[in-house]
Write a structure and sequence with these properties.
about 70 residues; five-stranded mixed β-sheet; 2 helices; RNA binding
């Protein structure tokens, strides 16, 4: 599991996917979310605006990322 450090208290999942280099642009993040491949804390997520906080785990396919 890779930790991705954020500089604020929270971050939107679309922004987080770009920060973690999983998505190159917002449209890529949207495609990932709409495809059903993104899970947050084990639950499917399709909203780009979902707020993440430190400790949340985002899974994209086989890649696990922890918000740090």
């Amino acid at each position: 599991m890779r930790e991705v450090v954020i500089s604020t208290d929270s971050i939107r999942v679309g922004q987080f996917l770009k920060l973690a280099n999983v998505a190159d642009a917002g449209s890529d993040a949207r495609s990932l979310l709409e495809s059903g491949r993104v899970r947050v804390n084990g639950e499917a997520e399709d909203r780009r605006g979902r707020q993440l906080v430190r400790g949340d785990v985002v899974t994209v396919g086989d890649t696990e990322l922890r918000v740090g």
